[in-house]
Amino acid sequence: MTNRQKPTRRTVAWSASVIVIAAVAVGIAAAANNPQSEQGAAEQKSIPVNCVVAQQVTEFEDVKTYTGTITAARVSELAFARAGRVTKVFVDEGEDVYQGKCLAQLDVRHLEARRSELQAQRAQAVALLEEYLAGPRKETISAARADVTDMRSQFEHAQASHQRNEDLYRRKVISKEEYDRSNFGVRSAKAKFDSTQRKLDELLAGTRKEKITAQRAAVSRLDAALKDLAVDVDDAHLIAPFEGRIAIRHIDEGTYVSPTTPVFRYVEITSLEARIGLPVDIARTIHTGMQQDVLIGDRTYSAKVKTVLPELDSTTRTRTVVLALDADAAETVVPGEVARISIPETVRTAGYWLPTAALSRSSRGLWSVLVIDKLDDTATGIAARRDIEILHVQGERVLVRGTLQPGDHVITGGTHRVVAGQKVRGMIQ
């Protein structure tokens, strides 16, 4: 070894000694500060955390919201009851209409002509009936009496002449032919006298009841024809059946319509309904007359259950509940808006209610909570993980089930600084 090499070896030896001493020092310091060592575990302080005691429930009340639509209580496709040409339309789309207002009119000129004709026929029939009821005039009876007197005189004269001819015939003064002619004259005069007498008797007795009855029937028949015509005239005017609003106007003047031609789509505005589909089991708890709050937009309205339809909706498989809104809702609500109702429902399932802050994500998309295990009298123990399953979320709390046990102290605060195996001290909220 040269003199140049000797200092280098001494330097290396000294450096190695320093490194060994430093390593020993670091090891001692690490051993003293390691929390996993027995000495560190003995000296570890517990971390204060908030916690709740897990209490199992077997059922809970959940409020579910169901959605439906606002509809008018009555919606009609108005049409004329008879065919004809439209001559006047009195309303337009969006116009509010009172009950009984005339909305449109058909041409009624031919109906008016027919009515005038029937009225004339009825006047004639009534005049004849009044004549029958009043009976014959005095002048007619006097003339009939005079005819009877004249016929009686002629009959008596013929009878007297025949008696003389009968005596002459017995004496063979006149022929058989002249006698027969005289006898025929008597019978003819007698027949005329009887005829005029019967006419007088008929005039004195008045008009026969059967004739009066027949004439009254004729008047009634014309009255019926006039009433039927009045219905036709009424049907030529389209009248608003209830208070409402014109939603759609389908026709204009000059259009020829039939009884199946819609003229207006007419919507009632004073009475609104909410139609909401409910599951069958929920619908069974709803009864006619029940009060129910209905949320429409950002406002809540009072309503009363009008009916529950007996059949299932083929699409949604729900039963439709019809709720009648209070009258004041018509001022701000229009058909077609979305309506919502909330109904409390008892759900029977076992679990534990925990604050959402107690949950943390676990592996494979699951959830877990930390509980205080091995509790002592001071509520101090070791944090342990429990896997759970979320059953229901309700605001700031959740219903869970899993490996929890009744009485477990579940950590709800400070979980971000606590890990499993760490010593903690629970403070029950």
UniProtKB/TrEMBL annotation:
Any one Gene Ontology MF annotation carried by this entry is: efflux transmembrane transporter activity
Where does the YbhG-like alpha-helical hairpin domain start and stop, copy by copy? 117-235
| Keyword field contains Zinc | no
Highest rank taxon of the organism:
Bacteria
Keywords in alphabetical order, please.
Answer: Membrane, Transmembrane, Transmembrane helix
Q: Where are the transmembrane segments?
A: 12-32
Query: What is the recorded name of this protein?
Result: Multidrug export protein EmrA
What species is this protein from?
Symmachiella dynata
